[in-house]
Design brief:
Blueprint lengths: L3 H6 L1 H10 L5 H36 L2 H36 L19 E6 L5 H4 L6 H7 L3 E2 H8 L5 E2 L2 H19 L3 E3 L4 E2 L1 H6 L11 E3 L4 E3 L4 H6 L5 E3 L5 E10 L18 E11 L1 H21 L4 E5 L11 E9 L4 E10 L3 H6 L2 E4 L2 E4 L1 E9 H11 L7 E2 L13 E2 L4
Parallel strand pairs: 4-9, 8-14
Antiparallel strand pairs: 1-11, 2-3, 5-7, 6-7, 9-10, 10-16, 11-12, 12-13, 13-16, 14-15, 17-18
This protein binds one RNA strand of 93 nucleotides through helix 3 and helix 4.
Length: 424
RNA sequence: GGAGGUGUCGCCUAGCCCGGUUUAUGGCGCCCGCCUGCUAAGCGGGUUGAGGGUAAUCCCCUCUCGCGGGUUCAAAUCCCGCCACCUCCGCCA
């Protein structure tokens, strides 16, 4: 992210960075002014406090009239110290408030523009031509109903719209995907984790989900808990306020957790089936490393995701998300979009973000290096998002007879099962 | 949810009742040195961490005894609230 030094030395660069992200350039000036007040308040407090300490020592050893004299002096000083302390606390809080609104610095390589200005980096695999195969492809809702993979009606009855039950083979399919994703993650050096899905505000705020994304987050006011929208949150907060041993980096974790999303503002979008839901389970990859190493790690995350879809025999493309569509914390983001036949387009199934030191600064995660203590970098990437992967598998691997073929790589995790069909 | 106990510088620990000379005691570990055929042992010294100032590994300042408030000229120490852990009870998968 833009650190304070850069902000102070070249505010115009920072303003430009804000414009590039579609964020307010004026924020930079607000921060600078808050920073100035904060520093002045700290300096004033520290000076008074130092004086007070010196006097305190003399009071301790003084006797009689000397002591009375010193006590009078220090009493006056104490009043000043107290007000200086209040001023400092206020100034720091004000500074934090504006500073926390500043998004990460977008990578210079990220394409300019907003949501529609992504750049397609590559296509892997070919969408099937169902017409040529002589049958009309069904959408995942139809397939899922017929094969009893999920139960949307009862999901709605019990929990409302955008909820579902995974049933029978559907439930087994998710468990198989979890196992396979964890297996591949472990092979790549990630430590399997099952983190808490309810977190305190600090974790949510530190990962950058209480900014522009706040409307999408479930909150339990009685207990002051947030429901995580991804295990990125508890995995990032795992090492909060810690100083990591540089030799231990990179630290890699694969978290499996439910994900809860309000999907506010998406009314009417993707209402069919289980493509866009309020809850799904996901295996997420998370890395702590150095900022210098983060770029290479980002490439590796994308490569692991590509390998995953190749193993699942799903046609996909990789996009480079534009600066204006990066959210608060990412400096750069690559999405893998899988072909969804019934929709006739590529849809996001995984996303890999390099958050550089943005989350680490906010969560107090630093590394001890030979040249000192510095914030580390954090990265996250989807290993497997269950509901959407099930959608993709059903639609892409459907057969003329209404059955669905299980990709070879996934079969061992389903007890050797090769197809989903009405019989079983 | 209820009762009691605990939380100190990497780890263990003293200090808290009775507030000030605590720049927090001692041990372990770690680092440097001495000594010794080698090793072990022994001896001497060093060692909380973070933030900031500075050209600076010198030096200076602030913060740091679970967290946050309060009392006081002054808080590890007194008071209040919270959190975590332990023991017991209750409840529960």
């Amino acid at each position: 992210m833009i650190d304070l030094r850069t902000l102070r030395e070249s505010p115009e660069l920072a303003r430009e960075a804000q414009r590039r992200r579609g964020a307010s350039p004026e924020l930079v000036d607000e921060i600078l002014s808050a920073d100035e007040s904060r520093r002045a308040a700290i300096a004033a407090y520290e000076q008074l406090r130092s004086k007070q300490k010196g006097l305190g020592k003399r009071v301790a050893s003084a006797r009689g009239a000397d002591k009375e004299q010193l006590l009078n002096e220090t009493r006056d000083l104490a009043v000043q110290v107290r007000s200086a302390e209040t001023a400092q606390t206020t100034a720091e809080a004000d500074f934090e408030t504006v500073m926390r609104q500043l998004p990460n610095l977008a990578s210079p390589q990220a394409p300019a523009g907003g949501e529609d200005d992504f750049v397609v980096l590559e296509h892997v695999g070919e969408p099937r031509d169902f017409g040529a195969e002589g049958f009309q492809a069904l959408d995942h809702l139809e397939l899922g109903k017929r094969l009893r993979v999920f139960d949307i009606e009862r999901g709605a009855k019990v929990s409302g719209a955008r909820f579902y039950y995974l049933t029978g083979v559907g439930a087994l399919l998710e468990l198989a995907l979890v196992q396979m994703a964890m297996d591949r993650a472990q092979a790549a050096g990630f430590l399997p984790m099952i983190p808490p899905a309810l977190v305190k505000p600090r974790a949510m705020e530190g990962t950058g989900f209480l900014g522009q994304a706040a409307a999408d987050v479930y909150y339990l006011p009685d207990d002051d808990f947030y429901l995580v929208g991804t295990s990125e949150v508890p995995l990032a907060a795992y090492h909060s306020d810690e100083i990591l041993d540089a030799d231990a980096l990179p630290l890699r974790y694969a978290g499996f957790s439910p994900c809860f999303r309000k999907e506010a503002g998406s009314y009417g979008k993707d209402t069919r089936g289980i493509f866009r839901v309020h809850w799904f389970d996901k295996v997420e990859l998370f890395t702590y490393t150095t900022v210098e190493e983060s770029y290479a790690e980002h490439e590796r995350l994308v490569q692991w995701e590509k390998d995953w879809f190749t193993e699942l025999e799903l046609p996909f493309r990789v996009i480079d998300v534009a600066a204006g569509d990066l959210g608060l914390s990412a400096a750069r983001k690559f999405d893998c979009e899988v072909w969804i036949p019934a929709q006739g387009r590529y849809r996001e199934l995984t996303s890999a973000s390099n958050c550089t030191d943005f989350q680490a600064r906010r969560l107090g995660i630093r590394g001890r290096f030979s040249d000192g203590v510095r914030p580390v970098a954090t990265l996250n990437g989807t290993a497997c998002s269950m509901a959407r992967t099930i959608v993709a598998l059903l639609e892409n691997h459907q057969q003329a007879d209404g059955s669905v073929q299980i990709p070879t790589a996934l079969q061992p995790f389903l007890g050797g099962r090769k197809t989903l069909d009405l019989a079983g």
